[in-house]
Amino acid sequence: MTFNADILIHPGLGNSGPQHWQSIWEKQFNFTRVEQQDWETPVCSDWVKTLNDYVKRYDPANVILVGHSLACAAIAYWARQYNIGIKGAFLVAPSDTEADSYPTGTSGFTPMPLGKLPFKSITVISNNDFYVTPERAHLFADSWGSEVVNIGDAGHINVSANYGDWNEGLDLLKKLDTGY
Predict the structure, then answer these.
(1) CATH hierarchy code of domain 6-178
(2) What is the average per-residue pLDDT within 125-132?
(3) Separation between Cα atoms, residue 15 and residue 159, nearest integer Å
């Protein structure tokens, strides 16, 4: 599988370890990881600025952002602040930063951004994600104008839920790359 877009991988809280599908894809396809200064106690405005610095390195019209968990909120905040028409965003397992189950230590990621994104997006959700209910995940995706893909009982769609290579996710990412 080949990709025409410039793919920027943006992990969530704690970064993505070597067995995470984001890290596997990064290595396999030479995607670029957005390297944040603080993965453990992030500040939203810092993440948004860093993300924008990465996007500016490329032709925005050819950029696809691949966000997991907290990165989905960061991408939505980035879109609201900069309103740049990128090629698309692949948003996986968006965490609900307003939920009681959300870990402490982040700053500025509430309330959840609910504005329509100025680019195509696919939001992948699960029925049993500890960090977001299916109803809230649908609310986020609908507000963002995303295509919603529910992959069933997939937990947080990470290593602990047995998502390593995740070829089905690559097929969805390819849809964004080819413009559907």
Answers:
(1) 3.40.50.1820
(2) 96
(3) 12
Using the predicted structure, report yes or no on whether residue 180 has a pLDDT greater than 80: no
CB-CB contact of 71 with 12 (8 Å)? yes
HEC assignment per residue over the chain: CCCCCEEEEECCCCCCCCCCHHHHHHHHHCCEECCCCCCCCCEHHHHHHHHHHHHCCCCHHHEEEEEECHHHHHHHHHHHHHCCCCCEEEEECCCCCCCCCCCCCCECCCCCCCCCCCCCEEEEECCCCCCCCHHHHHHHHHHHCCEEEECCCCCCCCHHHCCCCCHHHHHHHHHHHHCC
pLDDT at position 64: 98
What is the C-alpha separation between 71 and 76, in angstroms, rounded?
Answer: 9
Long-range contacts of the stretch 52-56 (C-beta < 8 A, 24+): 52/78, 52/81, 52/82, 52/84, 54/8, 55/8, 55/82, 55/84, 55/86
Report domain extents, the chain: 6-178
